[in-house]
Specification:
Largest sheet: 6 strands, mixed
Shape: elongated
Number of strands: 10
Strand content: 25-35%
Strand order of the largest sheet: 6-9-8-7-5-10
Structural class: alpha+beta
């Protein structure tokens, strides 16, 4: 399983005196995101689960439905196990990853070269297609890339933040007005908090771009 809904006393999460019963859903997260996420309203270290890799989301409208669905998609991906002796899925997959221009100027980087090193995200494999969503002030998908190398040891200056990196090659650049967040929402992608899969409808829209 990758998500479980439970009704529990609120003080089981925050340690306060309030024993009012609330509904929560437990989902799995990347361990490195736990500390940051648990400082967000509506998100707590998981009740009755490993608090390093699970969180409890309060189901009281503190978190928007779209964000909860993103957590569920991520939890589903993280909990999948390949059965021993079964045929492995080796087909290329399509992903969306976020980029924050305040932390790294990827636009300037792509003006100099088509291949950049990026933090390793989830289960991305060599040959997968990676669409890059640029956060505000752009709030749009700007690039289609291919993962050309994965599981690379990060540069020394990056190792404090990331364990592994990957190399992605830019194959296409989109005008910022072509696929803003408003167009993404129409096609089943309400936001990009972290690595997420691409919807078929959004992929068709992007593939039709000239």
């Amino acid at each position: 399983w990758y998500g479980i809904i439970a009704a529990i006393p609120k003080n089981k999460l925050d340690g306060e005196k309030d024993r009012a019963v609330i509904e929560v859903i437990n989902v799995k997260i990347p361990q490195e995101e736990g500390e940051k996420l648990c400082g967000t309203a509506g998100i707590y270290p998981a009740w009755h689960m490993n608090k390093k890799s699970w969180v409890s989301l309060i189901l009281d409208d503190t978190l928007p439905d779209g964000q909860i669905m993103e957590f569920l998609e991520e939890s589903y991906r993280l909990t999948q196990k390949k059965k021993s002796g079964s045929k492995q899925d080796t087909a290329p997959h399509t992903w969306i990853i976020p980029a924050n221009p305040y932390y790294y100027d990827i636009i300037s980087a792509f003006r100099k070269t088509d291949v950049v090193e990026w933090k390793q995200a989830g289960h991305i494999e060599k040959g997968d297609t990676v669409y890059m969503y640029m956060a505000a002030p752009y709030s749009a998908i700007l690039y289609r890339c291919e993962a050309v190398e994965v599981d690379i040891s990060c540069r020394k200056e990056d190792k404090k933040r990331e364990r592994y990196c990957m190399r992605i090659r830019r194959n296409k650049t989109y005008d910022r007005s072509f696929c803003p967040l408003s167009e993404m929402r129409k096609r089943g992608v309400p936001g990009v908090r972290g690595l997420r899969t691409m919807t078929a409808e959004l992929k068709r829209y992007l593939d039709e771009a000239k």
